[in-house]
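Proteins fold reproducibly. Next comes a concrete instance:

***
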Amino acid sequence: MDAAGVRDRIVGEVDASDFTAHGVHVLLGEDSAGFLWSADRRRDVHSVAKGVCVMAAGIAADEGLVSWDEPVRTYVPGVLLGRGVEEVTLRHLLSMTSGIGLAWSETMMTDWPDLAVEFLSRPSSGRVFQYSNASTYTAMRVLASVAGDVVQYLVPRLFEPLGIAGVEWERCPRGYVVAGGGLSLRIEELARIGRLIRDGGRWQGRELVSGEHIEAMHSAWVAAGVNPGYERYALAGWGGPGKAWRLHGAYGQLLIFRGDAVVTMSADDHFGADAMASFVVKTLEDHLSA
């Protein structure tokens, strides 16, 4: 089965299930195929943006600007830290293992004068999984303290090489990217990010981010819960379905990786996304066993 065959099976399942998809892109090796149900305009990729944040931190680490395993207090001196936060690192923030709790809300970015300061002032319960957009936001605030504006930093290092111009990333009232979401991309642009990740951080023969940081997106898993497809989390990546792994944003924004295959989906169907991801992986498994 080639990329067009995989695409056609996914399109058939979407149409049969009434899954509200905007588009799909299939990459198998160098073979690719896509399909659009609606105009390919830029849409919020939601938590898939966390993967871009991981790459941003990886690029900065490659350049020696930041260390994944240095306590973040090194980069934000003067911030009053909560109990147990002294040893929290950038890696902990990006893997959701800081142990700091702060639940998501629609007003998260405006509930406190400074969300990063609020987050770091709360106590940590140790190296346990605590999923929060505030964790990724704080990580990008740490990065901004050494690299400046995150978008401006990434333009020549990531976005321009990928041919992604005029990047739109939502900002908080303080002017920083909201980080854990709010990044708007077309499905074709998102597919380029998927190819970059699949190829270990290399794009057209050039290394944009070192492979060790890409590998960390789907290794060193931490226990995240008991719900199928949400049991394991790494650096922005969720384990599953099956032998695959994925970046998964709200309402069905998906980058699904299995071997040399990447399936990119844009949708507006929060509750149907898990079933669709499982169907995609089954289709890829059928491809691999053919």
